[in-house]
Amino acid sequence: MTEVERLNYDVVVIGAGGAGLRAVIEARERGFSVAVVCKSLFGKAHTVMAEGGCAASMGNANSNDNWQVHFRDTMRGGKFLNNWRMAELHAKEAPDRVWELETYGALFDRTKDGRISQRNFGGHTYPRLAHVGDRTGLELIRTMQQKIVSLQQEDFKETGDYEARIKVFAECTITELLTDDGRISGAFGYWRESGRFILFESPAVVLATGGIGKSFKVTSNSWEYTGDGHALALRAGATLINMEFVQFHPTGMVWPPSVKGILVTEGVRGDGGVLKNTEDKRFMFEYVPDVFKGQYADSEEEADRWYTDQEKNRRTPDLLPRDEVARAINSEVKAGRGSPHGGVFLDIASRLPAEEIRKRLPSMYHQFKELADVDITKEPMEVGPTCHYVMGGIEVDPDTASSSVPGLFAAGECSGGMHGSNRLGGNSLSDLLVFGRRAGLGAASYVAELKERPKVSQSDVDAAAAMALAPFDPPGDGVEENPYSLHTELQQSMNDLVGIIRKAEEIERALEKLGELRERIKRVTVEGHRQFNPGWHLAVDLRNMLMVSECVARAALTRTESRGGHTRDDHPGMDPQWRNKLLVCSATPGDNPVVPDIGVTVKTQIPLRQDLLELFELSELGKYYTDEELASHPGSPA
Ligand code: FAD
Asked: Ligand 1 centre from 210 Cα, in Å?
């Protein structure tokens, strides 16, 4: 029998980024005991890295802003493939979630008259991003950690134990979810430092594990983003949607190679920075797609006036949604007009005084100075696309954040639907707050209504332990595989063959490679002991990366159109017949004991509710919808 530390909680939240922490607060506020587990240090999550800000239509910088405008922008950004109910809840609730953070102790930057300041970002009609310089995510996490400490102090007063209702398990990785008759019964994992196993017996699990970027070679994501939550959910029987949509942020650092991919916030363009090619031309004016024609400035003069007068001028095309800008940069580089290291130039130096740049963008100034020896107040940055965010994720009910597996909830980047085919910048931090809260609430309500708690079976615990330990005990047929080599090969294939521009023949090659890696992973071998062993940790994560990569590739092959974060060179147009179709990934145990088989099925979206449909002009919807779908629009000819 496996030696395991066993603990009991009402709710286990896996992930301590923004979504996880907001879920913890909510479940605890409803009176339940909550374990929060994170594989890195507490406080070190992607949310901390968020620079630009948190989108919420508070209307502080422009009083014309409201939830309807935010909803419209989000649906446009996602090319109308979004789960519209999620987009509606998000747009309506984001302002309350931001104000609520201030009641927890956050302090956002201010307008001159003392309200929360809001900045411009791509795809947002009005300045909408509440921010703290370019360190917004840090403030968000700091504040929620502070709130958690205050709740722990309340619990101490009542029980004499700070950890009576919230306990943090840092540097602890969950490798498997356990079920009892199809319902969640617990989560199994290991302490990274000691390698010892830990079992959380709990009827409700909230997944808040973030994204999948580490499956790609060039990425803004850090080591934790190995798609664990996506894979855990699949193995527990839940489904993933929209996995073909991966966001390549247009502006990652391209030089030096050691920092390639690190993010340059969109806030640089929001604050006046412009993209230029080697001919010193502001090329984005050439790349406004038909669906956005008329909404963006068509001259540099108008674009520049827009920064100070948004009523009379249209916004700069430098702030088109990310998918459009990333493709434009790709085209410029391909056409030979790229910068010396294979990107384009992002110039803020000639646009703002040095002091202002340092004040508004302190992290960017520091990042370039330290890592690339570039002074962004004096010279342009070299930037290019980097894998940044996955729109696809666990399929959830919008109101409760529950997956199809009873007791399993998901929020934040590991959930899917909210952003459709492409996320707008700033809409992730607000998503974490809105749906983190809803997931905590969903889990609490589920537990409250349970008549009888599911049980963990010992055989499941033994199986989870055996799977985790397999890399120490390879088949012994003389062939040993190194987890680092497999990871490098996976990242290269995903980058080259299922990256920013895709075609059938290349995706098929990627799937062949993934098939090969699925076989080779059976022989992954690690040296040494279970005590802090990074090779072993990677071997365990690799299984998840292979599963999510296969979801991305299979869905990308199935969707024969281009939309948002999925560009098919062989199917360049957006096809209205695909607009309401979701690709759903599920896993079935095949003949490979390590990596289950992935299947993709097509599902039809629930039609947009009539009152929401009517928020859009018929002429705009006509660019995305079929005539049949629009027959009920009041503007439609009878
Ligand atoms: P995270 O914050 O990444 O947290 C994931 C948590 O899960 C971590 O605690 C991790 O340790 C844990 N975890 C993962 N797997 C396991 C496991 N197996 N077991 C236990 N724990 C696990 N969005 C915006 O809206 N505005 C911005 O300005 C912005 N800027 C960004 C800048 C950068 C550089 C990056 C990378 C992203 C940015 N984003 C921004 C996107 C946004 O930050 C992320 O989408 C968001 O923070 C994800 O939050 P999350 O709570 O879902 O996950």
From this structure: 5
Q: For 134-181, how does the pLDDT look when each residue is reduced to its tens digit (9 = 90+)?
A: 889 999 999 999 999 999 999 999 999 999 999 999 999 999 999 999
- For ligand 1, which residues put their CB under 6 angstroms from it? 14-20, 37-40, 45-47, 49-54, 136-137, 173-174, 208-210, 220-221, 224, 228, 263, 389, 412-414, 425-429, 432
Q: What is the pTM of this model?
A: 0.93
For residues 625 and 551, membership in a common domain is answered with no
Single out the residue in 372, 388, 404 at which a domain terminates: 388
Report d(CA 321, CA 277) in Å as an integer.
Answer: 19
Structural element, H or E, at residue 197: strand 197-201
Q: Is the dihedral of CA 521, 525, 526, 529 positive or negative?
A: positive
The answer, yes or no, to whether the previous bond of 257 is cis (omega within 30 of 0) is no
Does residue 263 form part of some domain?
Answer: yes
Torsion of CA 439, 77, 210, 146, to 10 degrees: -60
Residue 522 lies in a domain: yes
Domain final residue pick, 327, 358, 388 = 388
Residue type, 87: A
625 in any annotated domain: yes
Q: Can you spell out the DSSP letters for 48-84? A: HH--S-EE----SS-TT--HHHHHHHHHHHTTT-S-H
> Closest Cα partner for 37 from 142, 189, 256?
189
322 catalytically annotated: yes
> Has residue 638 got a pLDDT over 70?
no
Let me know: does 503 contact 569? Beta carbons within 8 Å: yes
Residue of 26, 38, 46, 173 with the most ligand 1 atoms within 8 Å of its CB, for mutation:
46
The CATH number linked to 380 is 3.90.700.10
Q: What angle do CA 465, 469, 470 make, to 5 degrees?
A: 115
Q: How far is CA 518 from the centre of its chain?
A: 25
Q: Name the residue among 540, 564, 555, 542 with its Cα closest to residue 586.
A: 555
Report percent pLDDT > 70 for the chain.
100
Q: Kindly state whether residues 571 and 590 are assigned to the same domain.
A: yes
CB 204 within 8 A of CB 446: yes
Write out the DSSP string of 428-442.
HHHHHHHHHHHHHHH
Q: How does pLDDT run across 448-477, given as a tens digit for each residue?
A: 999 999 999 999 999 999 999 999 998 878
DSSP H helices, 307-426, are 322-334, 354-360, 362-372
Q: Are 302 and 278 within one domain?
A: yes
Place of tokens 């109910």: 85
Are 622 and 557 in the same domain?
no
Residue identifier of the C-alpha nearest atom 14 of ligand 1:
209
